[in-house]
Amino acid sequence: MKSPEHRVSRRAAILDRLADHVLAEGLAASSLRSLADAADTSDRMLLYYFKDKAEVMSATIECIAGRLTKILEEQNGSESLAFEPLRAKIWEIVSADELWPFMRLWLEIASRSAREDPFYRIVGEQIARGFLAWGTAQLKSATPAQREVDAAKLLVSIEGMVMLKSLGLEDACRTALESEL
Asked: Is there a contact between 27 and 109 (Cβ–Cβ < 8 Å)?
């Protein structure tokens, strides 16, 4: 019989493969069978490590959000910044080609949420609130109340720019950033 540590280790390895697959292929390629194939296991074994497909997807998306947070933390550094410089810095990070799979996936989650898919509404809200909290921690504002306002404006601004880039309007994003600096 395998130890609980082995099960945790195997589950983590499966999640890494699932995260890679979902980032590369998107949510449309997330049937249980295609996820199992990506994890190099059977769908029955996948359900050994996760209770159902919802848990598979939730854990996979959580893994992906954790990867993105780690990248943001590494590239942003530890210094708190005012709203405009932080917005410009975050946009530079998230609009880079190597991070665009994360943004594409985020847009898919938002789209499914907009279509009132209850699962993606919950997952999307959790992720957005997590990044709102992350942004709050990164900001240097005059007061805690102003930091909350600035964090909300930061999230709204970055989300809008991600959507505009996906529509081919990256030039509008650059124009907006240049006018503020």
From this structure: yes
CATH number of domain containing 130: 1.10.357.10
Going from the first residue of the chain to its last (181 residues), give the mean pLDDT of each consecutive group of 10, the final group possibly shorter.
Answer: 75 95 95 94 91 95 94 88 94 94 97 96 95 94 96 96 96 88 55
What is the pTM assigned to this prediction?
0.89
Report angle CA 114, 97, 172 to the nearest 5 degrees.
Answer: 65
Split into its structural domains, the chain has a count of 1
Predicted pLDDT at 42: 92
**Residue 171 sits in which domain range?**
4-180
